[in-house]
Amino acid sequence: MKNLFLSLVALFIASTLASAQTGVFKAGAFAQDISPEDLPISINGNMKDGKATMVHDRIHARCIVLDDGITKLALVVCDSCMIPREVFDAAKKTVAEKIGIPATNILCSATHTHSAPTSTGVFQSEPEKDYPAFLSKKISLGIIEAHNRMVPAQIGWGVGSDPTQVFNRRWFIKPGMMNTNPFGETSDKVIMNPGYQNARVEKSAGPTDPEVSILSLKTKEGKHIALLANYSLHYVGGYPAISADYFGAFAEQIGILLDADRSFVGIMSNGTSGDVNNVNFAGMPPGRREPGEQIRVVASSVAKAAHKALGNIKYKNHVSLASEQKEIPLGVRLPSKADLERATDILTKANKTVLDTMPEIYARETVLLSKFPPQVPAIIQVMRIGELGICAIPCEVFTDIGLEIKRKSPLKPTFTISLANGYNGYLPTPEHHKLGGYETWRARSSYLETEASVKITSTLMGLLEKVKK
User: Fold this and answer.
1) Which of 51, 178, 268, 461 would bridge 186 by S-S if both were Cys, CB 3.0 to 4.6 A apart?
2) Model confidence over 290-312: pLDDT tens digits?
3) At what angle are helices 85-99 and 131-148 packed, to 10 degrees?
4) Residue 132: what pLDDT?
């Protein structure tokens, strides 16, 4: 009797899987406006808080929902600098309750535009009172609307390249030259953004990743539904107002290149760009450019690379979907008693609300970080879409890490979305921690243990093995 029962269960599972493989694959997409309703509003991403008094271009939570007949996945990319886990968790909970997509099957991320409302505290910007809750609600509404718009679809993916827009921003300091960090130390071997042709530096301290990974969705009739891209470029900047930066401009440009209608959703996610920006410090300074001009230049260049890669895609009428995630504890680099005493002394002497110098700003961060627990939980997630792998890390991930994941992943191709499912600061490798530099300086923007990248990469490899066919 037991053998008969097991046989029936096996038959049911086999039948269900076969049905899914021959069933209808569906996809839907929607760009949910998340622009603030009240201005002026705090925008973060700098050492001092900024205030946006206008919206230059609308910002969005760009959502995709996929359904293979058994499993549903949702991917969301928000035009925001960084978003705390609590905001994403609340949105996922609402979606799970209303349309049944499990929270573990939802990947939410931020682009890292430096021109969006503050959602999490970093340096002298603190979360706006009402915006995080507003953002969470909008994210859930966007996913639900994308779900409602699902239609029978075809899907394809590919990889293009644009090496012209990415440069490693960390540079080795020449032997004998010193750079004093905000803690009064002179042990740093690298400096971030050294300026053009700086005689104190000799070469960049890391690689870049020129790949433009894309996931394309079309209706059965060939109408473009959405295109998700991934590129390892930090941000570009250029507007002292609310703006989606080059991520939003890319979405517009790829739609134009595809001659898509207004329902099309273009999406650019942030890859592993923690040490990469758009400035070639080995070259000559560019001529004067109008505000936003560089955003348009970058967006156009990357959109052309994505469009070229589309020409090599072979679309499929059905693929299977899978998602796995694991919450892992990561250590916090807490300040010592001496660190805290020094920071308190600096702030007492400064005696002002808005801090001006780097030692003062990092002293405030030291005091705030001293209240952190010794460990924090982090969600590490992977998704499989057919043979495509997508990894999600809640940090500003260094390029070395992304390249290692691509090399080691059992799924080809694989790309990583940074600033996903929360915000846990920069993620340098242990080797980069030894070199020092801005991205390693202890603050709410960089506080994880020096071995965090090793633990995260190991976790991702285990999850990728679980989801592979």
Assistant:
1) 178
2) 888 999 999 999 999 999 999 99
3) 40
4) 96
